Amino acid sequence: MEGKIIVVTSGKGGVGKTTATSSIGAALALEGNRVAIVDMDIGLRNLDVVMGLENRIVFNIVDVVLGRCKIEQAAIRDRRIDNLFLIPASQSDNKDVLTTAGVERVAKELVKQFDYVIMDSPAGIERGFENSIVGASEALVVCTPDVSAVRDADRVIGILYSRSLTPKLVVNRIEPARVKRGEMLSHEDVMEVLSIELAGLVPMDDKVLISSNTGTPLVLQNDSKAGQAFKRIARRLNGEEDVPFEVPVDRSSMWSKISKTFGLTQ
Amino acid sequence: MINFETAAPVKLKGFGKGFWITLNPSHPEEVLISEIEKLFKKLKHLAVNADVVLDVGDAKGHEDLIQRIKLYLNNHFDLGVISTSPIKRSIPTERIRQRDLSKEWNQHRSDVLMLRGRVRSGQKINAKKHLVITGDVNPGAELIAGGDVIVLGKLSGKVHAGFPDKEDAIVFALGFNPSHVKIGSISASGSEDGVGSSPEFASVEKNKIIVRDYMKASPFRRMPWPEAI
Q1: What's the DSSP call for residue B137?
Q2: Is B185 within 8 Å of chain A by CB?
Q3: CB–CB of B139 and A151 under 8 A?
Q4: pLDDT tens digit sequence for A132-160
Q5: pLDDT in tens, A176-211
Q6: pTM listed for this prediction
Q7: CA gyration radius for chain A?
Q8: Fewer beta carbons under 10 A from the terminal one: N or C of chain B?
């Protein structure tokens, strides 16, 4: 059976595409799937750093598309998770070296070898974005609860629909305390504007930064709230039904509420 | 060269089972008769038993002229029934009103563009005349219409009604919160208050765009009967 290609995109940069890609990829691999993560951000490669694999790069996706090497040669096996592979981006080329036809050809090869291929799309809606969605069968749109991120995600959703892709939404970096104070949009606000199927809600988590900088998978940390949220998204993508959506809540106020109930504080 | 200024003395058109002859009574009777003779001689057997309607166009009177020509045709050609054009009667006002009330929209062919669904950021919709959207319009989307813009949902994008210079156009939305409104050549930026609690509409008053509560100040409430637009 052929695998699925899932493109992770957002329009705006810095909303957590790369973190989402690596975490969802790792989580899908932990579920027993053979997973390839492809960094499509040619010229600004960083998925390898986030996954802690930067020292092992020999070939990259540009080499694969241009026929300089085979997919097996470019795919780097993860250090911790056996059936997780990374095909890194090229750091020296720019996005114009790839053609959509070339990427499509490689995409058809990839689905034969892997159960899931997760494409990390670059920010923007130009050539690099077009290249990363060309072979995709599913799309995830990552959006933070910011007005600008929502605007860009909306544009990207429009483009994805025009390419017959029905995207699902990941609302990332939800800060319940700030939502409560009215400083940030709530995930309901985001969903109201974007009105697409929800893939998952991911809370703001300091562990993401640590995990990215040390190259350790977020989903292997059981105390990471974001990591657990990405695991649930992966389970949903893997066809598991009835995975509950956990709405991030403000723990501090929750604790104070409980305390009040028990008469511990006034 | 064809002269369009003075109408030809006699014009002949095919009509049902016969011919419709339009005479220009400003020409002398002899000219008219000789012209008719020329035409009918050319028609030869086609004129046999053909019905003929005689008409003097927009000119009034000339009944005696028509009678004489009728007589001439009867005497010289083997035609069918020769009649005069039916009199156009003006419809009384009362009947026009009744027709307006009951049937006007039955014949109405509309240029209204009606869309269903969400208009997303970066999408631009151009409508020749009125634009109706049943769905929300997201921030960053753009609507341009030659007439009114009606949004049955939340309007958050940029909107231009009455493009390019029709200032009697309106913009209506159930949730009115556009980033920029333009009606005809007059524009205004959106307010920062967010969506009001009731449907609102924008229209031009004294060269300014005014937004009002639709339920309290509907511009159409005073129209006695519906009219097709």
Answers
A1: B
A2: no
A3: yes
A4: 999 999 999 999 999 999 999 999 999 99
A5: 999 989 889 999 999 999 999 999 999 999 999 998
A6: 0.71
A7: 19
A8: N
